[in-house]
Amino acid sequence: MAKKKAKKSGGVWVAIVFLLSFSLSMLMSWSSSMALAGAGLVLAALTVLLLVFFGILADVIGLSVASASEAPIAAMAAKKVRGAKRALWLLKNADRVSSVCSDMAGDICSVVSGSAGAALVLRLTQMLRAESDFVLGILVSALVAALTVGGKAVCKGLAIGRAKEVVLLVGLALSLFSKE
Hints:
The chain is mainly α and 180 residues long. It has one domain. Helix content is 87%, strand content 0%. It is built from seven helices and no strands. The chain has helices spanning 2-37, 41-67, 70-78, 84-92, 94-128, 134-161, 163-175. The longest helix has 36 residues, at 2-37.
């Protein structure tokens, strides 16, 4: 019976992830489209960089939650360290938190930053009065991908090596929005 319940809850979790991913993708795509609609070159570039940054940050949080140890956080929660109780909750739900952060938020930011990069190419093409955006599109896509992958590679060491600190910082941030 326990296996049947676990299977059912797994199916529910998949449905929730699907619906959240769909909704979050729509919201982020709409938000970035609205920000880029009348934006100049600088705002378009900043939007792309912001999306890349949030994707990297989400990945760092997801990896830190997946790799941090519960014991030191539990000890801090017992000593009533601010944010430790929320951090412990994150660790107890590491599989789902990691999925939401790394897979959902991180991947969605990566996809939307690519779309925003395409909008940036259009702005550059208009500004430069270029007839073709082919080469420019390839260059911007490559730059966005390199910043995303490179940023994640640089931050993986931080996410694993300082997992406890990252999780505590996220726990502290969450505690600011709730009673602890």
